[in-house]
Amino acid sequence: MNTITRRDQSRGLTLQDEVNRLFEDNFTRERSGHADLATWAPPVDIYETENELVVKAELPDFQDKDIDVRITNNTLTIRGERKFEKDVKEENYLRIERAYGSFMRSFSLPNTVSPENIRADYSNGVLTLHMAKREESKPKQIKVSVAANGK
């Protein structure tokens, strides 16, 4: 017998959200019910200001020695590894949802970024990269002088 399930419209979920959740539940879990410990990528926000490009990556429970940031041929690469805690026996866990293991995120940088002038800060589990723009790429205002009587 088929069961009809109503979708709760008030929750704001779209069909795409439900399909994504279905695939996530079925394919990103191992048979033991653990999250995939080998594949993950931290979420990243990238925004631009007048003077710089800023990248923020969520990296909770990392130490600075576990984070590697490099720029090669206008490509920013962030690598790291979150190790599974060994001080708690795996059989004592009731649920494991956080991802562990190595990750790598790469982003193409615009030519406006100066690869020599980059500052990286790590605070409260967030890696923030401030990449200054090249002087020639920053907007410049040009004063227009108006001649009297068109002369």
Could you describe the 3D structure shown?
This protein has one helix spanning 15-27, and strands spanning 44-48, 52-58, 67-72, 75-82, 101-108, 113-123, 126-133. It has 151 residues and is mainly beta. It has a domain at 35-136: Immunoglobulin-like, CATH 2.60.40. It is elongated and about 85 Å long. The protein starts with 14 loop residues before the first helix and ends in an 18-residue tail after the last strand. Mean pLDDT is 79; it is low at 26-38.
Briefly characterize the structure.
By secondary structure, this protein is mostly beta strands.
Largest beta-sheet details: 4 strands, antiparallel
**How does CATH name the architecture of the domain at 35-136?**
Sandwich
Strand content: 35-45%
Shape, per Cα inertia axes: elongated
N-C termini distance: 89 Å
Q: Indicate the mean pLDDT.
A: 79
Write a concise keyword list for the protein shown above.
mainly beta, 151 residues, 7 strands, four-stranded antiparallel sheet, 1 helix, Immunoglobulin-like, three-stranded antiparallel sheet, single chain
SSE blueprint:
Layout: H1 15-27, E1 44-48, E2 52-58, E3 67-72, E4 75-82, E5 101-108, E6 113-123, E7 126-133
Antiparallel strand pairs: 1-2, 2-7, 3-4, 4-5, 6-7
